[in-house]
Write a structure and sequence with these properties.
Length: 101
């Protein structure tokens, strides 16, 4: 009988150890999965932001090209005169401005 009691005690200790180790492993696994999930979420957000910024960069490059061509045009005095006449209703010598809608 003494042997069976000690055997039962040892068995209970083993079961408690197994349960404790299992709980610790589950806790560690949960933490690791949570960490990986947050990292993957951050990576996904950064990829989306990168796509948006790439589109914005392309738009700004196109706008830069338009502005560069506008600057080159503004260096020409004939273009400046034409632009001033159209936009600001500027008239030259012996010219009259008639607005038509």
């Amino acid at each position: 009988m003494a042997r069976s009691k000690t055997y039962k005690r040892l068995r209970r200790k083993r079961v408690k150890r197994i349960i404790l180790v299992t709980l610790i492993c589950l806790g560690i696994n949960s933490y690791v999965l949570y960490s990986v999930g947050t990292i993957l979420s951050d990576v996904y957000d950064m990829k989306n932001e990168n796509k948006k910024l790439s589109v914005k960069l392309n738009e700004m490059k196109e706008e830069e090209e338009v502005l560069k061509s506008e600057v080159n045009k503004l260096k020409d005095p004939i273009y400046i005169a034409k632009y001033a006449r159209e936009k600001f209703l500027y008239s030259g010598d012996n010219e009259y401005i008639i607005r038509m809608k």
